[in-house]
Amino acid sequence: MQSDHKQQALRDFVADVSHELRSPLTSIKGFAQAILDGTAKDKKAQLKAASVIEDEAKRVIRLVDELLELSRMESGQIQMAQGPVDTEELLQHCHEIFMMRAEEKDLQMAADIKPLSPVIGDIDRLEQVFSNLLDNALKHIPAGGKISIAAQQPSADFIEITVSDTSPGIPPEQLPHVFKRFYRVDTSAAKTGIGLGLAIARKIVRAHGGDIKVNSILGEGTEFIVRLPVNVNISREWMPEPRRYSCSRLSL
Ligand SMILES: Nc1ncnc2c1ncn2[C@@H]1O[C@H](COP(=O)(O)OP(=O)(O)OP(=O)(O)O)[C@@H](O)[C@H]1O
Ligand SMILES: [Mg+2]
Questions:
Q1: CA 147 to centroid of ligand 1, rounded, Å
Q2: How far is CA 79 from CA 64, 125, 160, in A?
Q3: Nearest ligand, CA of residue 189?
Q4: E-assigned strands of 170-236?
Q5: By 3-state DSSP, what share of the chain in percent is helix, strand and coil, each rounded to 5?
Q6: 131 C-alpha to center of ligand 1: Å?
Q7: Which of 23, 32, 175, 199 has the most C-beta neighbours closer than 10 Å?
Q8: What is the set of domains in the chain, with CATH numbers?
Q9: Using CA positions, which residue lies closest to atom 21 of ligand 1?
């Protein structure tokens, strides 16, 4: 029974990956052919075709990279670092970096970060979680909208970070699926994504002993809530020197 289940999971996985690779590879083939057979006649048409080929090839590379990362996490090949993480500072840096990107898109960005006990874990991986949540918010809200980061410590045992936005929202029937591999809600903004960011984010958060949830109201917005256990035994004096966070890996 267990092995039937594994076989089915493997078949689903291969079907998903083939489906995701087919579309960019079909574009690459079509545009390369247009250059070769002269359908793309002039320089301008050839440059356009080459640029589509480059974009689609980048998409395939990103897909394969993210997929490998997810599979290594699932098989336990990626070890999470176990250091003290100053989440207050990490979130402040994420706020600063994404504030610039929000301004470029004419969006507002707010942060309300309360004092937080340190988390034990992998700072780069946690950065990746918040980058993806902020990146998603940026992609989905129209100009004039707002993104907020709120962080608090409701109890001695855990902290809670909420990334919310005024996006058009996710339909209730689609909400349970957004953490699944390759799942994208059918909107034009979602078409640019690979659909792996939230699956990876949830793996990372769970590897830290926490969890991530989503709430969304159509026409109002979406919020992702990350809950992480804290280590109250670490004093702030023992925190490492502040470092430069990039918090922008996914957007580059
Ligand atoms: N803030 C949000 N507002 C509206 N829809 C969202 C939001 N965040 C995620 N979604 C929906 O959930 C889907 C899955 O998100 P996820 O981050 O996993 O993938 P992606 O952003 O499409 O691609 P990737 O992160 O791999 O580049 C998105 O495609 C989008 O449809
Ligand atoms: Mg994403």
A1: 15
A2: 20, 10, 24
A3: 1
A4: 211-217, 221-229
A5: 50, 15, 35
A6: 12
A7: 199
A8: 2-74 (1.10.287.130), 83-251 (3.30.565.10)
A9: 193
Which protein residues touch ligand 1 with a CB less than 6 Å away?
Answer: 66, 132, 136-137, 140, 165, 167, 170, 178, 183-185, 190, 193-199, 222
Tokens for 26?
A: 């079909």
Tell me, in angstroms, the distance from the centre of ligand 2 to residue 235's CA: 34
Distance from the first to the final alpha carbon of the chain: 43
Pocket test residue of 135, 136, 162 for ligand 1, highest count of atoms within 8 A of CB: 136
Amino acid making up residue 219: G
CA-based nearest residue to 224, from 164, 179, 158, 170: 164
The string of pLDDT tens digits covering residues 86-107 is 999 999 999 999 999 999 999 9
Q: Tell me the per-residue pLDDT of 37-90, one tens digit each, with 9 for 90 and over.
A: 999 999 999 999 999 999 999 999 999 999 999 888 888 888 888 899 999 999
- State how far Cα 91 lies from the chain centre: 15
Q: How many CB atoms lie within 10 A of CB 70?
A: 16
Query: 223 - beta bridge partners?
Result: 164, 215
User: In a 3-state reduction of DSSP, which class is residue 49?
Assistant: helix
CA 92 to centroid of ligand 1, rounded, Å: 23
Structure tokens, 16:
């998903």
For atom 6 of ligand 1, the residue with the nearest CA is: 136
Evaluate if residue 245 carries a pLDDT over 60: no
**Distance in Å, CA 114 to ligand 1 centroid:** 27
